Predict the structure.
Amino acid sequence: MSKIHFIVNPQRQSIGLRWPYEEQKIRNLTNDFQVHIVRGRYHAEILARQAMEEGAELIVSVGGDSTLSEIANGLYRASLGGKKVPLLTLYPELHAGDTIRSLPLRANFAEFLADYLRGEALRDSLDLGEIEFTGDYGQRIRRVFVNCAGFGFSSTIVERLSHNFRYARTKWNFIRLIARLVPFYKHPIVNVSVDGQKQYMSQPMLTGLIHNGRYAAHGLDLSEQSSLFDGKFEMSFILKTFSYRYLLGIFPLFAGLLHKASFVKRIQGREVEIGPAVPQRKIRVDFDGDCWGFLPLKVRVLEKALSVVR
């Protein structure tokens, strides 16, 4: 049985076209590997479990943050059942997401693979966020995320980028969508508790972000104090203000200084609960580059829950 399993999501053209050439580079180093192709949502999670059953010792995520998130869910759920979980790494040349910027990985996968085959790769354990939210039919769903979760306006942007293939997933298109949508956005009114302490009650907000990793929004440095290894979250809440102030905030957003704006509040913690102040209004939830459900949500840190190798 193969010890190295690649889970490849070719839906992004940049990955689908380049993967055959990258696969040949891998064959120059070893033939002891297997490739699984992702066909749709949740498939990467199923493939991760299949790889474990086939004796995988290393799983390589070749896709975006949503693919990585599904693999992490598959591995974490297996660990709860007492199964031996393989190591995980990302393919840096082809990873389309923000997690790669928060992880200290090598830029060249072939160099990493050569060290891994010699037993010289570094092993570490990163934190995950456990998120419990409301599904489309009112059911409670529990999953884990790797990089970032959000609600409100962030979910509107994620949904537009996910379902409209005319938009390339770049920070420039992210900014364009902000400028187009924010003047007409109806602010959700929410209640927020962090580590059991009430922080906001019936507070109108543009959006809220729960950072595990440092980067989000396709390359923007939104939380320079965040780390995947520190056992806590940093949360950014963008409070309601005039639309022109949001648009002026685009400039510090590019510079990684959004937290300097007076309408942005930062809180650190290990657990957060967020619910709608008006129960009839559905407020979207997103994490790791996809929209999943609605508020209310609960999030807590799972320290050193996933073993990675680099």
